[in-house]
Amino acid sequence: MCEPPRRLGFTWDEGDGTHSQVLFELASHGPDVRLVLTHSALASRATLVGVAGGWHTHLAVLAARLSDAPLPPFWATVERLEGEYEARVPADA
User: Fold this and answer.
1) Is the same domain home to 35 and 49?
2) Rounded Cα–Cα distance for residues 42 and 81 (Å)
3) Do 37 and 51 sit in the same domain of this protein?
4) Can you tell me the distance from the alpha carbon of 71 to that of 64, in angstroms, rounded to the nearest whole number?
5) Which of 11, 37, 50, 67 is the most exposed place for a label (fewest CB within 10 A)?
6) Residue 81 dihedral angles phi and psi, to the nearest 5°
7) Are residues 56 and 79 in the same domain?
8) Domain coverage including residue 29
9) pLDDT tens-digit profile of 56-82?
């Protein structure tokens, strides 16, 4: 799906024969732009936890780049966030 300049969506090959969906949406938010990222149709809770930590880290890197802030250490941040999502995501998700 592509609706320039507001939406971009694509199918993500999970590498195990399953596929999920990724959607990026942009919207005006006062003088800024809000980015909403949705990754859906994930096959398992473990995949959801890993994907959440990964995307969260990528977005933290993007925010740092946009504000000229120091970049977070990528893999250490992924590991920390995966632990946080492990604790937050319900077992039946």
Assistant:
1) no
2) 18
3) no
4) 6
5) 67
6) -70, -35
7) yes
8) 1-42
9) 999 999 999 999 999 999 999 999 999
Residues with Cβ within 8 Å of 9's Cβ and at least 6 positions away in sequence, in order, are 1, 2, 21, 22, 23, 24
Question: How many domains does the chain contain in total?
Answer: 2
- Distance CA(19)–CA(45), nearest Å, equals 15
Alpha helices in the chain (DSSP H): 45-66, 74-88
| 35 and 18 inside one domain | yes
Q: Which two tokens stand for residue 13?
A: 């090959």
Quick one: 6 and 25 in the same domain?
yes
Find tokens 């300049």 and name the residue.
5
Contact 1, 7 (CB under 8 A): yes
Q: Does the predicted model carry a pTM greater than 0.85?
A: yes
